[in-house]
Design brief:
This protein is of the alpha/beta class. 50% of the residues lie in helices and 8% in strands. It contains 18 helices and seven strands. The chain is globular. The two termini are 18 Å apart.
Length: 449
């Protein structure tokens, strides 16, 4: 990876390009997020005192002091510092920092406005966790939890609508023709796609929930899907269903999650449909092992969401919750949170840097990657030409057939038709970062490079 720039790959996106979205993020959005974290920890002072006494107050002050120093380092473009908290991933982070140094040569140390945007943004979230971890007894506190909970409750109407739709589909699912199965698949895939709009890291933690039923808007949103490879994803699932014998499925789907709240519900609804329609026999969800990028799903968020759905005072929501709990109990669904998902590495590094995870993904018949951060890591977050193929941008990352569902919130986008990017920029200069456009991009595995 350190030599990538010498191999004809474009430069990584970085805040060193003044006026770029990366520059705006590091200059404005990241300090805003840090300030919100500091405020949230301070607001919880009484809760910490109630739970832990004076030790809780001391921990709150300690975490805030570290985070205030971090905000100053960021705003004044100080060199990034090694991690010191002794967590399981600490050595990987510090080795990656040396890798970043090697890219810059001896001329200057890696810093907030000079290194790659992907690296420094991930690094900020990891430093937030370090600040909290170094201050027991609040070391497992999630400063983003309140926002995720709020997003879930503010999206209740939309959640009820898609749970009602799913339960309606369940009623006669065994009698559906292949054409009908495909029709529901397309709808729920697009609901999950647009669910990705609800991202609190992009709104810098501002309220960003889904108020109305997304099912009603699918027709109006269709022109904003810039690449739609649904017709290539479908046969992967359908073929395994046919191969497994009469209405069976042998398909193992890996589902790499993004945001908690409404988006997670859209993912669970799609996963439920895949199992119920026998398009998949098992779903392996992958989430984050740390609170990450404001609204990303952790194991606690995952379990809490299913519990809330089950306890809902709405028949179809509650029915979904009961079914999801039973999928987890019987092993049809499972949840994993490998530390690699909260490292700054591009996914083309996974085979070398997390071979156990890569081997796990190779067992899948299909991998669904949700959201913008996963897309940035899939494509190495580089200044690719828009017409470069998705396969080329993956740079050899092919554990299994994979599909990216993403609304655009960062200035990297590949796989477009010639002239498509130019047309978009003329119509909307912020098309890559507004969350208004989306892609469903597929790459089959084991293609000869």
């Amino acid at each position: 990876a350190a030599q990538a720039g010498l191999q004809g790959f474009p430069e990584p996106l970085s805040a060193k390009y003044t006026g770029s979205f990366a520059f705006f993020t590091v200059k404005d959005r990241l300090p805003t997020i840090l300030t919100k974290v500091i405020d949230t920890i301070h607001r919880n002072k009484n809760a910490f005192f109630k739970q832990h006494g004076e030790e809780g107050i001391k921990a709150e002050k300690g975490a805030i002091a570290i985070l205030s120093k971090l905000r100053n380092e960021l705003q004044t473009d100080k060199p990034v510092l090694p991690l010191t908290d002794g967590r399981v991933d600490m050595d990987m982070w510090n080795q990656y920092m040396q890798r970043q140094q090697a890219l810059l040569g001896d001329s200057e140390p890696p810093s907030w406005f000079k290194s790659s945007w992907l690296y420094v943004e991930c690094y900020m979230y990891r430093r937030i966790q370090e600040a909290i971890h170094l201050n027991p007894p609040i070391s497992d506190y999630d400063a983003f939890r309140d926002g995720k909970v709020q997003s879930f409750f503010e999206s209740q109407q939309a959640i009820m609508a898609i749970c009602t739709y799913l339960c309606g589909v369940h009623k006669n699912i065994d009698d559906l023709s292949e054409e009908q199965l495909l029709e529901h698949f397309i709808k729920l895939l697009q609901v999950s796609l647009w669910g990705n709009k609800c991202d609190l890291s992009i709104s810098a933690g501002q309220e960003n929930s889904q108020k109305s039923s997304p099912l009603d808007s699918l027709g109006a949103l269709k022109p904003f899907i810039l690449v739609d490879d649904t017709s290539m994803v479908w046969p992967v699932l359908m073929n395994s269903r046919v191969a497994a014998g009469p209405v069976q499925s042998a398909a193992r789907v890996v589902y790499v999650l993004d945001n908690a709240g409404f988006e997670l519900i859209t993912d669970l609804v799609l996963a439920d449909y895949l199992v119920a329609s026998k398009l998949a026999s098992e779903i392996h969800f992958h989430g984050k092992s740390l609170p990450w990028f404001v609204s990303d799903t952790t194991r606690k968020d995952f379990d809490w969401t299913i519990k809330q759905t089950l306890a809902a005072n709405h028949m179809w929501m509650s029915k979904c919750g009961v079914r999801w709990k039973s999928y987890l109990k019987d092993g049809t669904w499972s949840y994993h949170d490998h530390p690699f998902w909260t490292l700054p590495h591009e996914f083309c590094d996974m085979a070398a840097d997390a071979p156990d995870l890569y081997a796990e993904l190779q067992k899948a018949d299909l991998i669904i990657f949700k959201g913008d951060l996963n897309y940035r890591k899939l494509t190495s977050d580089r200044k690719w030409d828009h017409t470069v193929s998705f396969k080329k941008a993956l740079r050899g990352f092919h554990p299994a057939p994979l599909c990216s569902l993403r609304t655009l919130k960062a200035d990297v986008q590949v796989g477009l038709q010639a002239g498509q990017g130019e047309t978009l920029i003329a119509a909307d200069p912020n098309w890559m970062t507004s969350g208004k456009y989306a892609v469903i991009q597929f790459c089959s595995a084991l293609q000869n490079d």
